[in-house]
Amino acid sequence: MSTELKRGLEGVVVTESELSDIDGEAGRLIYRGYTIDELARQASYEETLYLLWHGELPNSRQLKVFSEQMAAARSLDEGVLKIVRDLAEADQEPMAALRTITSALAAYDPEADAEVTDEEANNRKSRRITAKMPTALAAYNQIRNGNEPIAPREDLSHAANFLYMLNGEEPDDVLAETFDMALVLHADHGLNASTFSAMVTASTLADLHSAVTSAIGTLSGSLHGGANANVMKMLKEIDDSEMDPVEWVVDALERGERVAGFGHRVYNVKDPRANILGEHSEALGEAAGDTKWYEMSLAIEEYIKAEKGLAPNVDFYSASTYYQMGIPIDLYTPIFAISRVGGWLAHVLEQWEDNRLIRPRAHYTGPEDVEYVPLDER
Q1: What is the rounded distance in angstroms from the CA atom of residue 255 to the CA atom of residue 237?
Q2: Active site residue 239
Q3: Known active-site residue 189
Q4: Which of 57, 87, 277, 291 has the most CB atoms within 10 Å of its CB?
Q5: CB count, 10 Å around CB of 150?
Q6: Using an 8 Å Cβ cutoff, are 205 and 179 in contact?
Q7: CATH of the domain spanning 227-324
C-alpha cells in the first residue's frame, strides 16, 4: 500500500486552535480575531498576553491586576541567579544559556509539580516564566560584560523594564513603545516549529517548564530563529565594504549565497509584521539622524522582489530595529524567545484543554526478513 509522505508535515492539519491564524496569500495574521496591525499599533504586550491566555482583551481593571502580577514575578531566586552568573562567566552562547536557565526555573517554582489540570496554577506559572525570562536574559548580558545585574522595577512595563535592565537606563517612550510593539508582533504565529515542539512535549503531560525549554531548543536552530541576527550581520558587512547594497547582494547571489530575511514557509507575499517593523526602523533612524540601515534594507527589498519575486519576512526589519535600539546582535533570537513564550504557553494551555498524545508515524523503508547472525559468527 502506497503512503503519501508530507515531509516537514507541510500542509498537514494536526489540531484546531483559536489562538492565531495566517493567510499566506493575503499576508494577514490575526490573534484571536484581531489583526496583527491593530494589536501592534494599539495593544501592549501585557494586553496581548492576556488575550492569548484568557481569550479576550482585558478591561482596565483586569489589565492593571494582570500587569501588577506580571511585574511582581520578575525577580530571580538566588539559585537561578547563580546559574545565570556561571553561564555568563563561562561565555555560554545566549540561546543555550536561556534554555538552561528556563529549565532551572522549574527547580525554584513553588508550583512546578502542580497537576497540568490545575488551571489556576498553570496561569500563575505562565506569568512567572514569562516575567522571569527577560530578567535572566538581561542579567546574563550584564554579567558577561563585567557588570552586576540590574534588579527589575515593578513600575515599568514589561518592555520598558527589559530595556532598563539590559542597558542600565530607563528607555524613552519611543524606545519602550517600539520594543513593546516588537514583542506583540512576535508573540504568536500559528503552528510554527517551536510552538509545535512545545505542544508535543506538553502532550505527554510534561510540565510547562519542560514544554518551554523544548521550544527554546527548537527556536535556536538556524532555520527558525536566527535569521534576524544574520540579517544584521549582512547589513554590517555591506556597510563595512562601502559597496552599494544592491551590488553587494548581486555579488552574494552570484557566489551562491542566500540573502537573509527573505521568503517564508507560509507567506507568499510580504510578511505583515515586516511592514510595521520597517516603519519603526525608518522612524528610529530619522530620530537618530541616520537612516542608512533602513535605506540599505529598502534597496535590498526592492531588488530581491524585482529579481527573485521574494518578499521580506519579520526578521528582515527586526534586525535594524533592534540594532538601532542598542541591542547586541547575539541577543536577537533570545529576544524572539522572550516574546514568543507567550504564544508557546497559550498553545500548551490550549493543548491541555483536550489533550491527546501527539504521536505521528514514519513510513518504514528499511530491509525486511534479515536473518540474525550470532555474535561469534560475525
Answers
A1: 15
A2: no
A3: no
A4: 277
A5: 18
A6: no
A7: 1.10.230.10
